[in-house]
Amino acid sequence: MKSRRILLLTVCVLLLLAMVPAYQYWHNRDQRAPFHIAMNEWVGFAPLFLARDLGYFDGLPVDFEFVAVEGDKRAGFYAGRFDMIAETADMFQTNRDSADYPGKIVFAIDESSGGDGVVGSASIRTVKDLVGKSVVAEPGQPAYFILQYLLNKDGMSLKDLNLQDMNSSDAAAAFIAEKADAAGTYEPFLSQALQKRAGAHLLASSKDLPGLIVDVAIVRSETLASRRQDVAAIYSGWCKANDYMKEHPEDATERMAKAFKLSPEEFKDTVSGLRYLDCDDNKRLLGSETSRGQLYQTFDSIGAILKANHLTTAVSPASSRIDPSVEDAVAKARGAR
Fold first, then answer.
1. DSSP character for 45?
2. pLDDT tens-digit profile of 186-229?
3. 205 contacts 114 by C-beta, under 8 angstroms
4. Strand order in the sheet with 35-39
5. What is the reported pTM?
6. Is the distance from CB of 255 to CB of 46 less than 8 angstroms?
């Protein structure tokens, strides 16, 4: 009888010891520091909210913060208040006075596909016709970079224009009122500019330039080093959210619309000019550590154009600004399922 009690006690002790690692894992999992992500209030980032809503971040607490001013977002990122920021690849490179600036691109989020563009009056038939003409556009917006890209292709730059900085809605209004010969803007102002001025036509939109205007997720190097599994959880959640959108489009739309205080119809209309980039797209764009994807060439081209227009002083090569290791690891894990 005594030996049975000793045996039972021994079994209980062994079971308790076996449970300690599991308890420590779940306790530490629940105690993980929140992951802070900053972005402007743009529906292109909506699948991140969907991933959080559906619990796809593997228990990681994630906080989103809308930051309208680029300087504030950059300052918070530098100070460590934000672990990740989301913005276009050209904004990431703009106004740099040193090639050694913080941050690594770890995955691509969405690309503009017709939602941004440059409209011209009836007298502006080609990009070369813009020389010396009145052009309005908003610095930092995709259409502003599309304008630079078009000029660069024809051996020109912003200095060849009579350029006036103006927010995108005002730019469209000025064009409609015939106070400008061309305007860079985005939807719905792009369509309004085309419809409300006789002879107006599209010089080019992001649909004509696939892969040029891409929103990316940028992580602090320190975060990537110390919280790699958390960064992987964010990207894995992004992939799962994209899967969910394909399988349950109506529910996904309703959830994402709610996050941005829009009706499902308003949300659908707003996202009509963009395309979300899923895991397969990211594999194509980022590649792996041994085989670089298409984003590397695009990133370097963007830097060269920004420098030619004096919108950045120093250019950092894509090889030092893109880290495909998280994307590659998650892609392999998904393939092994």
1. G
2. 999 999 999 999 999 999 999 999 999 999 999 999 999 999 99
3. yes
4. 62-66, 35-39, 84-88, 214-219, 104-112, 274-276
5. 0.87
6. no
CATH fold for domain 32-111+213-335: D-Maltodextrin-Binding Protein; domain 2 (3.40.190)
CATH superfamily of 116-208: Periplasmic binding protein-like II (3.40.190.10)
Strands (E) across 60-130 are located at: 62-66, 84-88, 104-112, 116-120
Closest CA to 202 of 318, 130, 117: 117
Provide the percentage of residues in the chain whose pLDDT is more than 90: 88
pLDDT at 64 over 60: yes
Yes or no: say if 302 and 294 are a contact pair by the CB < 8 Å rule: no
Closest CA to 82 of 214, 217, 215, 219: 219
Give residue 27's pLDDT. Answer: 43
Rounded distance between C-alpha atoms, residue 172 and residue 188, angstroms: 10
What percent of the chain is predicted at pLDDT more than 70?
90
> Of 76, 22, 36, 27, whose CA–CA distance to 227 is shortest?
36
Helices (H), 177-248: 189-196, 221-226, 228-247
Which helix (DSSP H) or strand (DSSP E) does residue 19 occupy? helix 2-30
Both tokens of 275, joined, read: 């395309």
Which candidate, 324, 295, 329, 311, places its Cα nearest to that of 215? 295
All structural domains of the chain with their residue ranges: 32-111+213-335, 116-208
Nearest residue to 270 via CA among 260, 255, 281:
260
Largest CA distance in the chain: 103
- As a whole number of angstroms, the distance between CA 121 and CA 211 comes to 27
